[in-house]
Write a structure and sequence with these properties.
97 residues, 2 helices, single chain, mainly alpha
């Protein structure tokens, strides 16, 4: 019985060691993944911070370009048939307003 008892303890100890190694490996992999995700989140926040003023700038540029487009449209009418149809529709809207 002593040999069976000792063999059971040795096998149980080996199983516990194997599980501990597996859990430590998982812990290490999760730590590395967490570190990588932290760096990615930091990078995304840095990019978001750098591009936040772009929306305000683009709104101003869009307003300026709308004025330029209107001035060019008045100076040079669109020669395409689609342009004539669009121009006729715009004139009808102007007349009805």
């Amino acid at each position: 019985m002593n040999a069976l008892y000792v063999a059971s303890l040795v096998v149980t100890g080996l199983i516990v060691v194997a599980l501990a190694v597996a859990l430590l490996t998982i812990l290490f992999l999760l730590w590395r993944t967490s570190d990588t995700l932290g760096k990615v989140i930091f990078g995304v926040r840095a990019i978001a911070h750098r591009v936040s003023p772009v929306e305000e700038l683009l709104t101003g540029v869009n307003g300026d370009l709308s004025g330029i487009r209107a001035a060019l449209h008045d100076a040079v009418p669109d020669p395409s048939p689609e342009g004539e149809a669009t121009e006729a529709a715009a004139q009808q809207r102007t007349v009805h307003s």
